[in-house]
Design brief:
mainly alpha, 2 domains, 5 helices
Length: about 120
């Protein structure tokens, strides 16, 4: 991800969600920075990394990673829902149907999970 995109995302989530502002922990030390929190959540999304693997690279516990991931997802939906997460209209559906037919995948529009296709980097649970 390019730096300016990351900084824009970070700025957006910090303005909306206080979870992404750095706070002091109970011992009086600074907690995880907003940069660290967003980086961990994005790595989990991008690479399908389990939360417990972040302890080794970022010294963040599994529960904190899961909280951070959930907070980031909820905040992104809250911030960008109206612009990017809208239901397709008829024109959008017609365009998608034409595209799937052109690529010889008729009927794919209703199969958003596409579970019958093997994907090289598809994370498995």
């Amino acid at each position: 991800m390019r730096r300016h995109v990351f900084e824009h995302l970070l700025r957006d989530v910090q303005q909306v969600n206080p979870y992404f502002r750095q706070k002091m922990d109970r011992a009086g030390y600074p907690g995880f920075s907003p940069h660290q929190k967003v980086t961990v959540a994005l790595r989990m999304m991008a690479y399908g990394s389990p939360a417990d693997s972040m302890d080794e690279t970022h010294s963040m516990s599994e529960s904190t990673c899961l909280d951070t991931f959930q907070q980031l997802c909820d905040t992104i939906v809250q911030v960008h829902k109206d612009e990017y997460l809208c239901e397709p209209n008829q024109e959008d559906l017609n365009r998608l149907i034409r595209k799937t037919e052109d690529r010889r995948f008729p009927g794919m529009t209703g199969l958003l999970d596409c579970m019958h296709w093997d994907w090289k980097n598809c994370p498995t649970g």
